[in-house]
Amino acid sequence: MIKNKRYLIFIIGFILLGLIILGLQLGGGVPFSNPSNKSILSLGGTPTPTAFKPLESTPTYYPTDYPTPTQTPTPTPAIIVPVSNTVGVDPIVQPDHQINIMVLGSDQKYKGSIGRTDSIMLVTVNTEDGTVNVTSFPRDLYVYIPGWTTQRINTAFAHGGFQLFQNTMLHNFGFKPDYYVLVNLYAFEYFINDLGGIYVDVPQTICDDKWGYGLSHCVYPGRQHFYAKEALWYARSRVTTNDFDRNYRQQLVLGAILDRLISLESLTKLPQLYETYVSNVTTNLDLPTILSLAPTVVKLTDRSLINQYFIKESMITHWISPTGAQVLLPNYRLIRNLLNEALNTP
User: Under a CB-based contact definition with an 8 Å cutoff, are residues 121 and 341 in contact?
Assistant: First the structure.
């Protein structure tokens, strides 16, 4: 039993924030375009809270003949030579009362290792307006990492920790994140199962190898109930799609996690969720900051307060490095326009 009221507030704020951004660390689905270069995922009106109750497993339909997966085409990599951005860019001016948190999903294979940050999300919390903007960064962006080399952006944290990651974002994109939350894949699975699974409104059929064992598996359009492994598979699958598609599916998983949290009226799961969180998440968020964010997080039952942005395929150039790596060269002008909006939209 949690007896200390201050500690309870801490757990509520930490768990809600942590689970919201945990959903974000996963990433892609159906491709879409927007001439404004801004993508906002509308998740509907304010849901009606319902009492939490364990969910029964929804049977998975396995067809006799699987549809032939149609892979999302990837453009032929350009034959160009990238220019290392060793000079850096000007900082982006931001409003007051705003906190930038990097949510990093690590491919950590075992405890004690760091791993690459294969999922990179910027969560911008405006505590004055009570809004949250989320911006997804592709893991294969080929950028200059200060003091080291030009390399994929997902290697910065593994090479020099959060300080080097901060400097990389400031140098290339003009903002320096204040905090970070590093989440491993195990934490995601634990959370989903602790929540009793999630419901995801799947927009289109997706077929892929199931969990790396050579078994074909499909998920079909409609409201689907996922436990941990299938939710993770759905959010990470990219063999028959690509990273940009995957980023959209991750946002669907985010909405599903929010729905489950809203249903926890009695917060009876908090102690269990908290234990999972502190055991599997690394962060520099301190108690005063968490408490300051809690009122904003509670308001997020109103989905119109969440704006989501994506660095899209039109903002990069596919390229093969001299070592044979397939990477993404940023169009800094287009990405700068997107970040100006994401960091300055109440």
Answer: no
The predicted structure's pLDDT at residue 206: 87
Pairwise CA distance, residues 55 & 57, whole Å: 6
Percent of residues, the chain, with pLDDT higher than 90: 29
What's the confidence (pLDDT) of residue 340? 96
Q: In the chain, what are the domains?
A: 5-31+57-342 (3.40.630.190)
Contacts 24+ apart (CB under 8 A), 162-171: 162/102, 162/284, 165/102, 165/104, 165/117, 168/143, 168/144, 169/102, 170/88, 170/91, 171/85, 171/88, 171/89, 171/144, 171/146
- pLDDT, tens only, 21-48: 443 433 333 233 333 333 322 233 333 3
Q: What is the pLDDT of residue 76?
A: 60
Position 212 confidence tier, pLDDT thresholds 50, 70, 90: low
CA dist., res. 69 & res. 239, Å (int): 9
- pLDDT one-digit tens code per residue, 89-101: 999 999 999 999 9
